[in-house]
Design goal:
The protein has 467 residues and is of the alpha/beta class. The protein has 2 domains: 161 residues, Transcription Elongation Factor S-II, Chain A (Up-down Bundle); 289 residues, Rossmann fold (3-Layer(aba) Sandwich). Helices cover 46% and strands 7% of the residues. The protein is built from 19 helices and 7 strands. It has a 7-stranded mixed sheet with strand order 1-7-6-5-2-3-4, with helices on both faces. The longest helix has 23 residues.
Length: 467
């Protein structure tokens, strides 16, 4: 068995932990680059995404975005200190000072490419994380030299551990207010979507529309609220207007999978991404699947802790349902209560929380590291993986050739039939047709980073298991 930390080095020659130094010339452009061995190239094909490549989005993210996330958390804790003390008690005041100091140190370690530090508190997943860090190569366990996916997951997990190991403010969500505001601010979009989807046909054409609406909701974590609202309304006015920006659409194959009456599998697993409007569109798609008889149950998977700012936790899931059911608008409260009824009847179900989703591992390690979760997914008629990070974990965060067949890129991870619904926000993609990339590069050189393009892709698990 391969070491846990070496998961980006999967078979078929994909993603060696280091690219051959002779294959390119290192050109140092700044003191920072020279000090931390940053090379002025794009991510090479079949290498994992990493901040060591200056012309990659990974480098931009680590240099310009992740430090801002930590700064904003520090600022919000400082600004809301009085409110938090009132909520958690006077003893929380000193703890907040300590936590702010720990976050400042984490930011310094990020900005100076320090090695990952093991977890030393009462984290439920401490042993898993520490084993993972121990198995990373010495030159692949710092913020810039490690796989980008590992770095991001480490930062967010370490960030939450500061609260998790506190005495007085355990389970506090740094990003709770952001997610609550995102939900409250999109109520007009929610109302429009409810009205749009009340009388829907049981057809592949309508299902395709529902998938596209769900796809483009994944853009909402990128945009300022006003821009997001305008885009949401534009999609509802004419869903087909975005067709030129969907680079792969396997909706008909997904429909055939769900329409299959010969299988004994009758439920769908939905691995969620962002809270707010996106979560609501996920509920609407799940409602369609239930009401059209395509599945008897939809089981939702959430993150075990606050994750990548806007990802859905158990608290967000329940808070959203409560907010909808108690809304002052009758139509919104009606749909919220319908979803709660679905929960009571077992048509909607919240899956047991798994720390695998907030770990650093690519999904092809699930069968070994989290066999119970893997067996759960094997029982599914269809697994829906939502969003960019889930996509990257499926593909081990490797810079694949975009035309490479997706099955080749999965490292053997096919627990059942699954689809990915994702707007593209990183240079990790596969399964595209010949010629698509060439046209895009001419039209939009930054097409992989803007979220303006998306994919709806399908992998047929029945081919793997013969049912």
């Amino acid at each position: 068995m391969e070491p846990e930390g070496g998961e980006c080095a999967i078979k078929d020659g994909a993603a060696d932990s280091k690219v051959d130094d002779q294959s390119f010339v290192k050109v140092f452009k700044s003191e920072f680059d020279a000090k931390y061995n940053i090379v002025d190239i794009q991510t090479p094909l079949n290498a994992f995404m990493s901040g060591q490549f200056k012309r990659s989005y990974a480098y931009f993210n680590l240099r310009n975005l992740l430090p801002v996330v930590l700064t904003k958390v520090i600022d919000s804790l400082t600004k809301d200190k009085g409110e938090l003390v009132a909520q958690f008690g006077e003893n929380a005041r000193e703890e907040l000072k300590i936590i702010i100091g720990l976050i400042s140190r984490l930011k310094y370690e990020l900005q100076t490419d320090k090695p990952f530090q093991k977890f030393t508190g009462d984290e439920i997943d401490r042993e898993s994380w520490n084993s993972f860090i121990s198995h990373l190569p010495n030159d692949g366990r710092t913020f810039y030299q490690a796989c980008w996916m590992h770095t991001q997951c480490y930062m967010y997990r370490k960030l939450y551990s500061f609260v998790e190991n506190s005495i007085f403010i355990k389970q506090f969500d740094y990003f709770g207010k952001i997610k609550e505001h995102a939900l409250i601010s999109c109520q007009e979009d929610i109302l429009s979507l409810v009205k749009y989807t009340r009388r829907t046909e049981n057809s592949v054409e309508m299902f395709n529309e529902m998938l596209k609406i769900d796809l483009w909701s994944n853009r909402n974590d990128l945009s300022e609220n006003e821009h997001a609202r305008l885009f949401n309304m534009r999609v509802l006015e004419d869903v087909s207007v975005t067709d030129g920006h969907i680079l792969a659409n396997n909706a008909s194959e997904i429909w055939d999978c769900l329409s299959n009456k010969k299988t004994n599998k009758q439920h769908v697993d939905f691995v969620l991404d962002n809270a707010g409007y996106e979560l609501f569109t996920d509920f609407i798609l799940a409602e369609y699947i239930i009401e059209k008889g395509l599945a008897s149950k939809v089981r939702f998977h959430v993150k075990a802790c606050p994750w990548f700012v806007t990802n859905v936790t158990q608290r967000d899931f329940h808070m959203t349902l409560q907010y909808l059911s108690k809304h002052s608008d009758y139509i919104i409260s009606l749909i919220g209560n319908k979803f709660l009824q679905f929960m009571d009847e077992g048509k909607f179900e919240l899956a047991p929380v798994s720390y695998f989703w907030t770990g650093p591992h690519a999904f092809h390690y699930m069968k070994t590291l989290e066999p119970e979760l893997y067996r759960t997914l094997q029982q599914s008629k269809l697994i829906i993986f939502k969003g960019d990070l889930n996509y990257r974990k499926l593909l081990s965060d490797v810079c694949w050739e975009p035309t490479q067949d997706m099955r080749t890129c999965l490292g053997g991870f096919i627990p059942s039939s699954f689809c990915t619904v994702r707007t593209i926000k990183a240079e990790v993609i596969c399964g595209l047709s010949e010629g698509v990339i060439e046209n895009l590069k001419l039209r939009d050189p930054n097409w992989m980073l803007t979220g303006n393009y998306g994919t709806i892709q399908f992998v047929d698990g029945s081919r793997e298991f013969g049912y």
